[in-house]
Design goal:
single chain; mainly alpha; 2 domains; 35% helix; 0% strand; globular; SLH domain-containing protein; signal; SLH_dom; Cell_Envelope_Struct_Comp
């Protein structure tokens, strides 16, 4: 799958600078310090998303907190997802113009990711010129971010079992994720586009998208 439109930001930002990897949180817990040996207190091998969490943690795409936890059931914020997507796509955020959001300064730990995705049109702000970096990312918003970031072709109509997405502004993107086998919904008949995404869930969604994009 061609991701050139998004990845091109790396080249236009700085041809001479290596890609920057941005962690999810400045309050990161580096495991025991050995490469590939992350171990979070609250993520055991039996947890549904444990494999995805550890794969991304070992690649420095996501991190946990100082107390040794990952908090997989906490909601993902809009700022966090900007950093995650920028990192997994190896987008170089250097020299990308300030997007001008009223609530995002250069001191924000997710500023680079937010600026990069705003420029790419992957994650936009609101009509009042705010970005709301600390607001939770909904499942519908996540669908749009993933489809745009990984350059998937939107599916206007799909044979999905979801009865709660027809009136959603994200219906095409949700249909796309279903058609690609990236999501199965929250039940046999629902996707729940308006509920927040959890940190553990997002790890699995991101890895599935990456796998599909490479085929």
């Amino acid at each position: 799958m061609n991701r050139s439109k998004v990845i091109a930001l790396a080249a236009t930002a700085s041809l001479m600078t290596a890609s920057v990897i941005i962690p999810v949180s400045v309050d990161a817990h580096p495991g025991d310090g050995r490469s590939g040996s992350y171990k979070f207190k609250d993520v055991n091998e039996g947890y549904t998303h444990s494999s995805s969490i550890y794969k991304l943690a070992n690649r420095q795409v996501i991190k946990g907190y100082k107390d040794g936890t990952f908090r997989p059931n906490e909601q993902v914020t809009r700022g966090q997802v900007a950093s995650i997507i920028t990192s997994i796509l190896n987008i170089n955020p250097i020299n990308i113009p300030n997007p001008g959001f009223t609530d995002v300064t250069v001191a924000n730990s997710h500023y680079n990711g937010i600026a990069a995705l705003a420029k790419a049109g992957v994650l936009n702000g609101y009509g009042d010129k705010s970005f709301r970096p600390n607001a939770p990312l909904t499942r519908g918003q996540m669908a749009k971010v993933l489809v745009k970031a990984f350059q998937f072709k939107e599916t206007a109509s799909a044979n999905t079992p979801f009865t709660d997405v027809n009136n959603s502004e994200y219906s095409n993107c949700i249909n796309t994720l279903y058609e690609l086998g990236i999501t199965r919904g929250t039940s046999k008949s629902t996707f729940s586009p308006d509920i927040p995404v959890k940190r553990g869930q997002l790890a699995s969604f991101v890895l599935r998208c990456e796998d599909i994009s490479k085929k």
